[in-house]
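lol ok so funny story. i was supposed to be doing the assay writeup but got distracted and ended up predicting the structure for this chain instead. priorities right. anyway since i did it might as well share w the group, maybe its usefull for someone
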Amino acid sequence: MKLSLLAGTAVLCTITWAIALVVDSDPWTGAGALLIGTGILATSTVGTVGMIVSHGRWSHRLALGSVGLTLIVAAARPIDLLWWAGLGATAVAVASLLSPWLIGSIRTLPSASGPPPRAIAPAIALLFTPAVVGFVSSDSPAWASILIGGSALVFAFLYSRVVWGGLAGVRAVWPVLAVGTSPFMGWIAGTVTALIGFGVAALAWNPAVKASFHPPVESGTSFPIPPELAPTEILDAAGIDDQGNPV
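and the output, tada:
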């Protein structure tokens, strides 16, 4: 219960700032504010759920990153009542995420059963993409920014849920879409988008990514065991004697 409350402060923080952006999106455009709000909410939600369910280091860092993005919003957005509410929520979230009670519940070593960190990296990069594109989208058409930011979340979902086409999406489809759209987005936003596209592709082509998405399957073999060598409890369960005859 304590972990849920402490981890949930990250979501509460990003919700507060998302509302503040809805009320006053200055200095960003409507599309930029939409992407920033969606991005910080997505990263904080995934990070919070990850901390509660898996206690993974990646989820803790993801939640901290989402809260860190709200400081960029605070530095640029006009000061009003919602600004103060958001700043207070950010302070509470930082204190909670760095508290010894929460840090003590986070694993210090990677999970033996979970995917390796390199396999998680493409999804995390895509989760941060909407907010990053939103921050630099002042000189970008709304359709291009929303296309890149929205599709990044879609491909992050397909990849993380091991949906058909998810691996090809993060390795080729989304990077090509990002690089291909970048010339229409203005100099700053286009450069950032292209760099993210190349970065996601580089992360996704790591061998660990394919091995996690399509684990290698080995065909097993079976060998008959003479009844006289089988354990008694197995023979009794099968209803046969040590000669293989029904009893």
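The longest helix spans residues 30-53. The radius of gyration is 24 Å.
back to the writeup now i swear
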